[in-house]
Amino acid sequence: MSDCIFCKIIAGEIPNYTIYEDDFALAFLDITPRAKGHTLVIPKMHAENLLQLEESYTEKLLTAVKKTQEKLDKVLQPAGYNVGWNHGQAGGQAVPHLHIHVMPRYNNDGGGNMHSIINNPGSGSVEEVYKLFE
Ligand code: 5GP
Ligand code: ZN
Q1: How far, CA to CA in Å, does 121 sit from each of 4, 77, 113, 126, 129?
Q2: C-beta of 117 in contact with ligand 1 (< 6 A)
Q3: Domains, in order of start, for the chain
């Protein structure tokens, strides 16, 4: 998409620090890192989110995440990771091109885990919610 900053990064129109690349995905350092080595992995096709991503790219994207972690492991030797993506405005997504955050974690770095993102379980029991899926 012509006005998408991440499409422009893929096209080489905006400079970036690439740490992994293949035919389907690009991994580059986040410009405002929340951890040393904070990396974004993006599909090389424009899709706002996973639901809009062509099926042929989904598996490839996860492979690129794995390759990116291998690279980060080798260079920075983090003690762990948080890996995930913000989906939609409510989920905190600012750039409307799917990007997987790979955040290296280091011992005693002061960060939280996935559970620290949200604590809004609602009023219904888990069983009641499950019944909605039946
Ligand atoms: P979101 O909230 O959409 O998941 O996060 C967007 C991320 O993209 C942010 O962490 C932000 O720092 C990063 N970002 C935005 N613009 C650029 C850019 O031009 N280059 C790079 N490398 N990262 C960017
Ligand atoms: Zn795009």
Answers
A1: 34, 35, 17, 9, 11
A2: no
A3: 5-131 (3.30.428.10)
Predicted TM-score of the model (pTM): 0.97
Our answer on whether the CB atom of 2 is closer than 6 Å to any ligand 1 atom is no
Task: Tell me, using a 6 A CB cutoff, whether residue 49 lines ligand 1.
Answer: no
- Size (the chain), residues: 134
pLDDT in tens, the chain (134 residues): 789 999 999 999 999 999 999 999 999 999 999 999 999 999 999 999 999 999 999 999 999 999 999 999 999 999 999 999 999 999 999 999 999 999 999 999 999 999 999 999 999 999 999 999 99
Test site for ligand 1: of 32, 34, 98, 102, most ligand atoms within 8 A of the Cβ: 32
Which residue, 40, 56, 59, is CA-closest to 98?
A: 40
